[in-house]
């Protein structure tokens, strides 16, 4: 259980922060950028939830919890030491990715196939889900970049990849099952 009695610690005043294993790194470290962007995504998702209800809101709440799991995963290096750890770090697992895929498939059944690219917009929820989609893509890019220099959990990257797809399909659902999607008209303003 996490207990936060004091919010400021002053330990980061000189531009460093602690990772999940206690190591201190620069606040601009690639790992910090990856999990920091995941935290940003969670915050943006909180704004999207202001416009959601019912099953959609329940799904978004599950994803917010998963994003905390993902942040915990990304802030903890030393993948090789996981098996020997007294308290193994929390890692995103394949079943979380599978749940996203199952939900994408279930949502997609309701939608007509796309015959055009769509512009971010439509309903307030759809617009916010498109913001979530683009932040998820940035978190994915930063995680892939991190994976080029350090070992990270491959399921974490896969989760982010699938999550951006989830947000895209959910945005279409939020747009009256695609009926209110804003279609791109190539060259319309030439």
UniProtKB/TrEMBL annotation:
<comment type="similarity">
    <text>Belongs to the Cob(I)alamin adenosyltransferase family.</text>
</comment>
<keyword id="KW-0808">Transferase</keyword>
<dbReference type="InterPro" id="IPR029499">
    <property type="entry name" value="PduO-typ"/>
</dbReference>
<dbReference type="Pfam" id="PF01923">
    <property type="entry name" value="Cob_adeno_trans"/>
</dbReference>
<keyword id="KW-0169">Cobalamin biosynthesis</keyword>
<keyword id="KW-0067">ATP-binding</keyword>
<feature type="domain" description="Cobalamin adenosyltransferase-like">
    <location>
        <begin position="7"/>
        <end position="174"/>
    </location>
</feature>
<protein>
    <recommendedName>
        <fullName>Corrinoid adenosyltransferase</fullName>
        <ecNumber>2.5.1.17</ecNumber>
    </recommendedName>
</protein>
<keyword id="KW-0547">Nucleotide-binding</keyword>
<dbReference type="InterPro" id="IPR016030">
    <property type="entry name" value="CblAdoTrfase-like"/>
</dbReference>
<comment type="pathway">
    <text>Cofactor biosynthesis; adenosylcobalamin biosynthesis; adenosylcobalamin from cob(II)yrinate a,c-diamide: step 2/7.</text>
</comment>
<dbReference type="InterPro" id="IPR036451">
    <property type="entry name" value="CblAdoTrfase-like_sf"/>
</dbReference>
